[in-house]
Amino acid sequence: MRAPALPWPLAVILSAVGAAAAGWLLVAAPVVVATLTGPTRALAGGFGFATEFWLLAHGAGADIGGTTITLMPLGLTAVFVLILSGLSGVAARQAVLAHDSDELTVEVQQWLLARVVLSFTLAYVLTVGVVAFLLTTPAQVAKALFGSVLLAGVSSLVGVGRAVGWNPTRAWPTWAKRVPMAAGAGLATVVVGASAALVVAIFQGRTRIAELATSLGADPVGGIVLILGQVAYLPNIVLWAASWVLGAGVVIGEGSVISPTVTHVGLLPAVPVLGAVPSESTGSTGMVLWLLVGVLAGVAAAWTAVAPRRRARVDETSLVGGLAGVVAGLALTVAAVLSRGDLGVARLVGVGPRPLELFVMGCSLLGISGMAAGLVIGLMNRSPRSSAGAASGPTDLGAQDDQETAPIG
Fold it and tell me: What is the pLDDT of the chain when averaged over all its residues?
C-alpha cells in the first residue's frame, strides 16, 4: 500500500490555504493586467478591487467606488466550489492512505469524513477571515465568515465524501435514491429553457447591448475584464431567466417587474447585458408559452424518477413524480435566492428573482406536471403480464425491475 506523502492534518491546512490563494489569484490576474495596461492607476487599487470581488464571491459584499454591492457572482463561486472540492479530496486521500484498505468500514469512513471536513473548513474560514479582517469592514468580516463556512463545508463534504467512498444514500429506499437525480433532471430542463429564453432576449436586444458597451468607453483590456465580469454573473442571469420563464418574474430596481405577462422597468444600470431586458409591454401569447418550460421540467423529473420502475403502482408513480417536481422547484428557489442582491442603493436594492412568487410557481408548476406525468407513466406501464404478477403480491418502487412477482414475507 502506498504511504501518504504528507500527514493528513498538514495536507488539510495546505489544501485549504492553497484553495483560498488559487481563488484570489484567479480574480486578481485579469484585474492587475487591466490596471497595468490601462490609464494611470494605482496598483494597490487593483489589488484592493480584486480582494473585494473575491470576498463578494463568498457573500461578503463589496464596497467598490463608494457603491455597496451584495450581488454574488455565482459563476466565480461555482469555480471556487470546484477548487475546494478538488483540493479537499486531495487532503482526504492522504488520510485514506494512512489507513489500511481493509479497515475502511462505514464507521471509519464517517470518522474520516467528519475530521477532514471540519479541519478543512476551519482552515479555509480562518484564511478568509484574516484577509477580510485586515482589509474590510466588520460587517463584511461577519458575512465572509458565514459565507466561507457554507462554501467550504459543502464543497469539502462532496470532495472528501468521494475520496473516502462515503455514500449518504446507502440506507435510502430505492425510490428515494432516484428523487435527487430526478430533481436534477427537472432543474436541468429549466436551465436549458431559461438559457434559450436568454439567447432570444440577447438577440432581440443586441442593439441596446452594443450601445451600452460602447458608452462605457473601456480600453481593449478593460473590455475583456468587463466581459469576464459578466461571465462571472452568467449563472445569476440564467437563474433570473428561469424565474421569468416560470412566470414568477424578476425585479431590477424598486417598483419594477419583468415577467412574461407584464414588463415595467425604470432606470437600469449601465451594464451591457441588461440591454436584453425587454421594453415595457403587457406581454404576448408567445411569451406566455415559455411557461411550458416548467411543464416539461416536471415531466422530465417524473420520467427520471419512475420510468425505470415498470411494475410500480399508479398511485406511487404519481406521488413520486410529484415529489420530484416539488424538490426541483425548492432547489431552484434556493438557488434563485442566492442569485439576488444589491447593485447599489435606493432603486437598486433587491435585484433578482421574486422569491415568494418563484416558490409558489416553481413548486406548483413542476409538482403538478410531475404528478400528472407520473400518473400517465404508471398507466402506460401497466400490462396484462404485470397485472398477473401484481395479483401474487404487492409491488412498490423499491422492487427490482426484472422480478416477475414481489418477494413474499
Answer: 83
